[in-house]
Structures are given as C-alpha cells and as structure tokens.
Amino acid sequence: MNRRADDVSDTVRVRLIGLPVQLHVSTAMHLDALQRELDVLATSEEPPSVPRRLTELVAELRERHGTLGAAHEAAVETAAERGDSTVDLTYDVPVEVADAAEALDSLLDEVDDYCRRGEHLLTLAAAPEVNAYRRWLLGQFVSQIAGEDPVPWERSDEAHAAAAVTSDRAAAVVTSERDLMDPDDVPEGWTVEERESEVVVRPSGELDLQSAPELRDLLLAVRQEHTAVVQLDLSGVSFIDSVGLSMVVSAHQRLAADGARLVVSIPAHLERLFEISGLQQLFEHSS
C-alpha cells in the first residue's frame, strides 16, 4: 500500500499500471488540439458572444495542464514506438498534485461541455473512452496520494465504461440560431460568398497565431449557419503555420460531426506544406 502523506512537503509514489498507450496518444492529441484553440482564443479580442467563464478557463487550463501534462510523455512515446499496448509508469510526486489533478479534471469537464455545445469552440468534445481514460489517469494520482492501492487500467470502472461505448455514443450536437453573418465581421481583404447550399471563405495573407482567431471565428460563424458545404479557398494565403492548420483541422472535424463538408482549395505554393504535415489526404480538396 502507498504511504499516506500527511505533511504537505512529503512526496508519494504513484504507480500507473497498464496505461493504455494508444488511448493515451488519442487523449494527448485531443488535449493538444483543444489547447491550441484555447490559445488562439486567448490572443483574440474577446467577442461578446464568448462567455467570461470560458475565457477564464483558458488561463486555468494552461496552468493545470502544464503541471501534469508532460512528465510521462517520453516513456509513453517510447512504448508506442516499440508497439507496446500498455506501459507501467512510476512517479514520486508532492501531495499538492492531488489538488491539481482534481482541478484539471473539473476544468476539462467544463471545457468539454463548451465543445459539446459547439457554440464557441470548433474543437469537438472528447470521445467517451478518452474521458474515461482521463478520469482513471487523474484519479490514480488523487487516490494513491490519499493512500489507496493502484488500480490497473483494465480493472478500473472507467475501463469497463469505455469498453461499453457503442456506435451511438456521440451526443447530439447543439447549435444556436443566429442571423446571417454581418459583413463587418469579415476581416479586411477576406471574402465570404454565400450560395444556396454552400459558403466560400477566402482568407488572405498569412494564417498564423495572429490571424488564426479571425479564421476560427469566421469558420465558427459559418458552421452555425447550418451550411451543407464550406469551401475554404486558400489561394490568397501566402503562409500558414501549425496554428492555422490546427484551426482548419478543427473546422473539418466539427463540420463532419454536423453532417457538413469542408472542401479546401490548396494552391500550388501550399501543397508541400499540407503533404509534409500529413493533411493532404484528410481534407476533401480542389485544385
């Protein structure tokens, strides 16, 4: 049994037994995408439609995730490279980590609710098995710091719940009704062409951390108009970085979840970037 730590200066050994490697990778990818969008949101001028609580969560999540997020990545990456399905990890952590783990779990529940509603974030809510894994992972830090024995992933209640997930697991997408896009919301030099069943969005210039908030807000507004097809024409874009690419990926996933399509027009000067980033095959695209 783990030693119970009563002194705040003590450390406790926490053992994660049978950590599922691929599920961990999926969870990390979702958190990375979510964090990128929240970072973009943090750099933008707050639109009135974004709840104050969501903007507060941006800073809180960055602080909490930074505390717990990176410690075990190298070991899991090594296990994934070997093709291992599970890995055992051991940490010596201060007792304060229990409070941080509980706070992070609660924050992710709140942000997940915003993702599920789809009104303010493009990133989809975490899949049920991802949430189950997250609860087990953070719960092990909390319970073992309190003196309880480790519970392997495969024997946990969360693992059984994740295994029971079926094809109808996705929650219904909740959208908000809103008026058609105000032309004043379109950045200078960008164009938005509305047709019968599709919208063509043509950004201009560089798509990076500075302009990504505008792309995110514009695609979110288009998505909320229940458009069947969104054409993203990148012919006027001179450069796009990882943040801009992340916003496009999030829009693709959100529209697909809504039963809509994102068609990306990739100009010749950006084709290599999409190829080396592995996104060339993800999007339906036109020349």
Strand order of the largest sheet: 3-4-6-8-9
Q: What percent of the residues sit in helical stretches (DSSP H or I)? A: 40-55%
Overall body shape:
elongated
* Gap between N and C termini: 62 Å
Give the percentage of residues in beta strands.
15-25%
SS summary, helix count:
9
Draw up the topology in text:
Layout: E1 11-20, H1 21-43, H2 52-68, H3 73-82, E2 86-94, H4 96-117, H5 128-145, H6 157-163, E3 191-194, E4 198-202, E5 205-207, H7 212-223, E6 229-233, E7 237-240, H8 242-257, E8 261-265, H9 268-276, E9 284-286
Helix pairs in contact: 1-2, 1-3, 1-5, 1-8, 2-4, 4-5, 5-6, 7-8
Structural commentary:
The protein is an alpha/beta fold and about 290 residues long. Helix 1 crosses helix 2 and helix 5 runs antiparallel to helix 6. Strand 3 and strand 4 (about 200) form a beta hairpin. The strands form 3 sheets. The chain has a 5-stranded mixed beta sheet with strand order 3-4-6-8-9. The chain has a two-stranded antiparallel ribbon with strand order 1-2. It has 9 helices and 9 strands. It folds into 2 domains: about 10-165, no CATH class; about 185-285, STAS domain (Transcription Regulator spoIIAA). About 45% of the residues lie in helices and about 15% in strands. The longest helix has 23 residues, at about 20-45.
Question: What attributes does this structure have?
Answer:
5-stranded mixed beta sheet, two-stranded antiparallel ribbon, disordered N terminus, 47% helix, 9 helices
